[in-house]
Amino acid sequence: MKMKKRTLFILIGPAFILFLVFFVYPVIRTAAMSFFDVPSMSVALRKCTFNGFSNFTALYRTSFRGSLVTLLKIWLICGSIVAVLSLIFAVSLTSGIIGKGFFRSMLYLPNVIPQLAIGYMWTLYVFSSRFGLLKKFFTWIGWTALAEFGWTSPDNMFISMCIAYIFSNVGYFTLTFMSAIESIPTSLYEAASIDGAKRTTQFFRITLPLIRNTLTSNITIWTTRVCAFFALSNVFVSNDTVSPLMYIYNVLFGSDSGTTAVGVGAAAAVVLTVVVVLVYALSNLIPKNKDVEL
Amino acid sequence: MKNIISILLAVMLVFGMVMTCNAESTLNADIVYWSSYTETSNYGQVITAAANAFMAENPGVHIEISFQGTGIQQTLGPALDAGAKITMFEANTDASMVLWKDYMIDLAGYYDTVYPQTKGEVYGNAIIPAYNTLALFQGDGVYMYFPYTPQFVKVLYNKDIFDACGITEEPATWDEYMALCDTLVANGYVPFTSDQTHIHFAFGYYLQRALGDEDFKNLVWSKDGTEWQDERVLAAAKVFEEMAKKGYFAKNIDTVVSPEAQQEMVIFQEIAMYVAGSWMPNNLRESAGPEFRWGSFNYPVVDPAVDDGSSLCYGGYGISISKTATQEEADAAAAFAVFLTLGEWGDKIVSDCNAIPISKDGEWPPMIAEFSDTYDGITNRWTAQTAFALNNDLLPTVKANLTKLMAGKITAEEFIAEMLAFYGK
Fold first, then answer.
1. In the prediction, which pLDDT does B3 show?
2. pLDDT tens digit string along A35-73?
3. Given this model, what pLDDT does residue B17 score?
4. Which residues of chain A does B256 touch, with a Cβ-Cβ cutoff of 8 Å?
5. What is the CATH number of domain B2-144+314-371?
6. Is the ipTM above a cut-off of 0.90?
7. CATH number corresponding to B152-310+380-422
């Protein structure tokens, strides 16, 4: 049955309008603001002064470059660890372990806790140099060096922030991997076992190739999440924990003293958008697993 | 004769009632008030109650309060730009006078008005003089807000520890300050602590005194880091390096996060001082308990210095009236602002929120009653959280490196080198 054009427009219309209002317009507006000297975020552009690429050159002299490096480090370091841990947990939980439902819920729980709460939980109750869980645990087992380790000192703040971030993300990715692994026919593993393949061989020869599509889509999801990295940056305060979004927030909305640099913040947002688009484009180059149908 | 007197009294009574009714009906407006507090906070509850009381006294006035919380800095600007009906709004004046000055009306006429809460004086003379001066200064010669909830940054201390060490005089000079620290250390106490949220207060205050406001602001807004190579900045860093070496800062100063350090100060009572905002005692009232005795003194004069001690880092909140308000709305909004901040409700804010009164003869909350001489001799005002707070981009780097300097992890020279690295040097 051929759908009338009018019906098509009516069905797509609301979504299209929302897309224009809440996505296209802000993107165009932000891009435009990046070329103006803007006194406040919502002021009409006709009241602003055009300043060419000045905001972009000013950006070069700020901590924005450092924040991009921070983002890259989070993406790479935390991403690798999250991927490895998630796979280990996913494989363990799909291997017929008792209490699978309980462990799955426990692992997923941090994902539903707001990042800000996660941040304070770790800084105040786990990493605290006086009362922290780690301090007490390492003192109890006699590892003095680790008990005295300054988890929240400026030099170690990035590591601590990464630990908290990994903690809050492992559960989600474990579930996605579990879902992919559970869709692999058990007959493949049974055949491999009969042929004498060990567990590790089965993982690398059966599991990993067959969850490649999930792995690829998880890279995209992970990239999206990392680009939106914000709340933990606000809790784990140091010079190497400022994420690009944190930087943009700081200069867009200003300090307690009201100083803003809206145009520079918009320029940073434009650069970040370009980076995200490039990352998506690159992730699409990863070949899909088209030769296997489960 | 009695009848005549009765008739006269009755006429006077009726006349008085009519006059009263006329006084009540003078104000007639619908006001929308954007507050930077939350509805459930102590402030929010007092503001709501005050609005209800004001509406009861002025039946022609209706006040709608929109509690925005601290997020007002993100929401008010777009709302004003979009032309939303906002008659009056309240925010930290450091922020509001930078961000929304163009939306405020000149309040000079209201500053010259006598209100029932101003005890026969014009409003401008009824408030703490330092805040009259500040409002004029921040408004470039124009009154643009009604100040309230004054705040300042100074050295807060535990009086019991000072007493235990036999310290009776508060230090005015840096030498006296250091001698006091020696005494505290000799008696087994830790002179200072701080956390990574507030760590720039102490060093920032030192630079305010040593460099003066203009040079300090130039340092904060340095384009290429040249100002960080100023010998005076290195000298200031060396002072703090020396203090770290002498054990003047808490051993865990590099690992405590807010509000942990403040809690440690009031719970363990081993740390004597904290360079902090006047709001800290109220924040810690539960942990400190009613027995805790707070003392305070203005940041000592350093040597060499540009400032002689007559400057103070202070600020507060202010209520402004929007340019979109009609004359009737503005009159009602001004009357409500004065009603809320002075008189009965001004006292209520002080008692319920442990806030500092804006009234020049207001009674300070018992917890910080001894802070009431803070503004004595003050003729100049600096940014409430020191000029470091002006540059949000630089601040994380300042805080991280100051933390390391005060923890004794880096030297003064390394501190300067780390700051220069921010500029790619």
1. 60
2. 999 988 888 888 899 999 999 999 888 899 999 999 999
3. 44
4. 129-130, 152
5. 3.40.190.10
6. no
7. 3.40.190.10
The share of chain A scoring above pLDDT 70, in percent, equals: 95
**For residue range B302-335, what is the model confidence (pLDDT) as tens digits?**
999 999 999 999 999 999 999 999 999 999 999 9
Cis ω for the linkage preceding B129 (within 30 of 0): no
**Cβ–Cβ of B392/A259 closer than 8 Å?**
yes
Mind telling me how many Å the CA of A286 is from chain B's nearest CA? 36
Q: Which of A68-72, A191-195, B20-24, B100-104 has the lowest mean pLDDT?
A: B20-24
Which position has the higher pLDDT, B2 or B244?
B244
Domain boundaries, chain A: 49-284
Using one digit for the tens of pLDDT, what is the confidence trace for B2-49? 566 555 555 554 444 444 444 455 789 999 999 999 999 999 999 999
For residue B258, what pLDDT is reported?
83
Residue A110 scores a pLDDT above 70: yes
Which residues in chain B are contacts of A43 at CB distance < 8 A? 81
Q: For B118-163, how does the pLDDT look when each residue is reduced to its tens digit (9 = 90+)?
A: 999 999 999 999 999 999 999 999 999 999 999 999 999 999 999 9
The CATH T-level fold of domain A49-284 is: MetI-like fold (1.10.3720)
Which residues from chain A sit within 8 angstroms of residue B404, using beta carbons? 153-155
Query: Which of A239, A259, A261 is closest, CB to CB, to B397?
Result: A239
Give the mutation candidate from B197, B386, B393 for the A interface (greatest A CB count, under 10 A): B393
Q: Are B112 and B122 in contact (CB under 8 A)?
A: yes
Q: Are B407 and A153 inside 8 Å of each other by CB?
A: yes
- Say if residue A292's pLDDT is above 60: no
Same fold, B2-144+314-371 and B152-310+380-422: yes
B114 phi and psi angles, rounded to 5 deg? -90, 125
Facing residues of B33 across strands? B65, B88
Of the listed ranges A253-257, A259-263, B31-35, B36-40, the one predicted with least confidence: A253-257
- For B422, the closest chain A residue by CA position comes to A63
* Residue B357: per-residue pLDDT: 95
Residues 378-397, chain B: which have Cβ within 8 Å of A? 383-385, 389-397
Residues on chain A touching B197 (C-beta within 8 angstroms): 237
Would you kindly state where each structural domain of chain B is located, as residue ranges?
2-144+314-371, 152-310+380-422
B386 contacts B153 by C-beta, under 8 angstroms: yes
SS (HEC) of chain B = CHHHHHHHHHHHHHHHHHHHHHHHHCCCEEEEEEECCCCCCHHHHHHHHHHHHHHHHCCCEEEEEEECHHHHHHHHHHHHHCCCCCCEEEEEHHHHHHHCHHHECCCHHHHCCECHHHCCCEHHHHECHHHHHHHHHHCCCCCCCEEEEEEEEEEEEEHHHHHHCCCCCCCCEHHHHHHHHHHHHHCCCEEECCCCCCCHHHHHHHHHHHHHHHHHHHHHCCCCCHHHHCHHHHHHHHHHHHHHHCCCECCCCCCCCCCHHHHHHHHHCCEEEEEEECCHHHHCHHHHCCCCCEEEECCCECCCCCCCCCEEEEEEEEEEEECCCCHHHHHHHHHHHHHHHCHHHHHHHHHHHCCCCCECCCCCCHHHHHHCCCCCCCCEEECCCCHHHHCCCCHHHHHHHHHHHHCCCCCHHHHHHHHHHHCCC
